[in-house]
Design goal:
Length: about 450
């Protein structure tokens, strides 16, 4: 336990014998805590409902409103608020009942003041540790859940809504999208947004291991199952019990393993390599692929029954070129993250011209390619702001698209077409940031979305 007693900790002492309350109030205040005194249960209820306390120390036997009532009120306001009770020897049974209802500790009168200070300190330390744990868990979920996904474009907003709905379902999920588009981040968001968040998230790339090793990795093996199997291995399905197993690039899984995967999805049982025994597992499978699984089914390279089993819920992860307006936000996010990994870097930002150039690039490697490029610039550029000259050695800068106003001088364009092309050009000029483009054009961003739909038809 920490020896520090936070000066801002506020404690409520409750006792209908005023002298007993004051006898406790003064030494606890001397210990560094702010102490309020309630001279009865009714006053205590009013204070608990109107102020924030870090601990409550209350007598058990009081007229009208007793310590159990104070305990119930405290837990109703804050289920984690520690309540410590004081009771005469004859009230021990009631004190034990209070412990069953959630009291932190009880003291039998007469008690020593140093004992009260000790247990109050422990209660406050436990409360602090629980708050830190919640904060760490929240930060972890923000890094691994929806908070890890960056972007406010229409495709991303649509995907956030789908994740929120699908996360609480039990069915397998198939994520489809180009390589580098962030499918594993979506899989993690599905896990951490749903009821399996307290359980493990286990990921494996089906292309990273040859068939026999992947089989052992997924299903485990017993000692002596094959050459080199010198010990027992549980396998990733068992490790993911109670959580989520992410199978990346499922389209590359060997067909013989596809049959075993199908049986697990249907029966919920896994058998280790070399074993006759089956083990029941509770695992949600999220699979991902950049391939055309329908074509692989037609070619006989992917089982049709497994495809149907996985394709219950499908989420398509948009490519970066489908959400260029997110590039400025992604650049800012990756710059901050790269600076954290490279604290000696002088780079603090990328210039608007660089961001605009990045917004016009093709990005075949999607978000992963953008992140790698940003980190390269953060590591190598020896100044605070990255300029176009810094970008040129690392990426081909596309030629700026000709202003539609200049092109229209070469022929007659209908006014609506000219307006649509100019809006498109301005969005490109702003690095895909439609909000910024709308501000410069003096129009609503919904007008840009409408013109884009018209332009694509």
């Amino acid at each position: 336990m920490s020896n520090d007693k936070p000066a801002d900790a506020r404690i409520l002492v409750v006792d209908d014998h005023v002298e007993m309350g004051r006898m406790l109030q003064e030494p606890l205040a001397d210990a560094g805590w702010t102490v309020d005194l309630a001279t009865g249960g009714e006053e205590a209820l009013t204070l608990i409902r109107s102020r924030v306390y870090d601990a409550v120390l209350t007598d058990l036997r009081m007229e009208k409103v007793d310590g159990l009532d104070v305990l119930a009120a405290a837990r109703a306001v804050d289920p984690e608020l520690p309540v410590l009770l004081m009771t005469a020897f004859g009230g021990v049974e009631s004190a034990v009942e209070a412990m069953r209802r959630g009291a932190y500790h009880y003291f039998t009168k007469p008690f020593r003041l140093d004992e009260v200070r000790l247990y109050l300190g422990r209660a406050l330390e436990d409360r602090r540790l629980r708050a830190e744990h919640r904060a760490l868990k929240q930060a972890s979920q923000e890094r691994s859940g929806l908070g890890a996904l960056v972007g406010r474009s229409a495709p991303m907003r649509g995907m956030y809504e789908l994740i929120d709905r699908v996360a609480h379902a039990a069915a397998p999920v198939l994520l489809r999208g180009e390589s580098g588009s962030g499918k594993e981040l979506v899989a993690r968001a599905l896990h951490f947004q749903g009821p399996r968040a307290p359980g493990p998230f286990v990921a494996v790339n089906c292309t990273a291991l040859p068939g026999p090793l992947l089989e052992s990795e997924l299903f485990g093996h017993v000692k002596g199952a094959f050459t080199g199997a010198t010990s027992v291995r549980r396998g990733l399905f068992v490790e993911a019990h109670g959580g989520t197993l992410f199978l990346d690039e499922i389209g590359d899984m060997p067909t013989e393993l596809q049959a075993r995967l199908l049986r697990i999805l249907e029966d919920g049982e896994v058998r280790a390599v070399g074993s006759d025994a089956h083990r029941t597992v509770d695992v949600r499978v999220v699979a991902a692929t950049h391939q055309d699984l329908e074509a692989r089914v037609r070619e006989g390279r992917f089982r049709q029954d497994l495809f149907y089993r996985l394709n219950v819920v499908t989420l398509r992860v948009p490519s970066l070129k489908e959400r260029r307006e997110d590039i400025p936000q992604l650049v800012e996010h990756f710059t901050a993250r790269s600076r954290a990994r490279n604290p000696r870097s002088r780079v603090t930002a990328l210039s608007p011209e660089v961001v605009a150039a990045l917004g016009a690039m093709p990005w075949p490697g999607n978000v992963r390619e953008l992140e790698n490029l940003v980190e390269r610039l953060v590591v190598l550029v020896p100044r605070e702001t990255v300029e176009l000259d810094d970008l040129r050695p690392h990426a081909p800068i596309p030629e700026p698209e000709a202003n539609p106003l200049a092109l229209a001088q070469e022929g007659v364009w209908p006014l609506r077409r000219l307006e649509g092309e100019y809006i498109h050009w301005m969005v490109q000029h702003c690095g895909g940031n439609k909000t910024r483009a709308a501000e410069l054009l003096g129009i609503d961003v919904s007008t840009i979305h409408r013109r884009e739909r018209e332009r694509s038809t």
